[in-house]
Amino acid sequence: MSVSARLAELGVDLPGVVPPVAAYIPAKRHGDLVYTSGQLPMVQGTLPATGKVGESEGLVDPADAKTLARQCALNALAAAAALVGGVDNLAGVLKITGFVASVPEFTGQPGVINGASEFLGEVFGEAGAHARSAVGVPVLPLDSPVEVEVVFAVA
């Protein structure tokens, strides 16, 4: 099944490419690889949540952060697809690096970044299997709870 057909089956519309918030480009191709810049969970130009992830009152709930990581992956997919002429020109996912702005006692970063990994696995099937890092950090740009970058293989 093509990537575009799988997205349609999942009921997922590819968003527009999120404009950079600093001096970088959303994605860069080198040979048969596309590297995305770190993608924030922007939806129509805004962050749906800000702050640090944790399990206490006033923090971003880990389950909500997982959903935000999924949005980051969708934004990365949009950036890569725009660069190579559409999602069907992407062959799969090689590497995901996820950053979670979290309080020091929070150790659930891998579960949060599963939002990105699981989504891209649903989209690409076996070609979505990838290497990954999930890193806790004190703060991210615009006070985003999560940021995800992806390396895609080009078909």
TrEMBL record:
Q: State the source organism's domain of life.
A: Bacteria
Name this polypeptide is given: Enamine deaminase RidA, house cleaning of reactive enamine intermediates, YjgF/YER057c/UK114 family
CDD domains (UniProt xref):
YjgF_YER057c_UK114_like_1
Q: Which InterPro entries match?
A: Endoribo_LPSP/chorism_mut-like, RutC-like_sf
Q: Which residues form the Endoribonuclease L-PSP/chorismate mutase-like domain?
A: 5-148
Instruction: Please name the source species.
Output: Microbacterium enclense
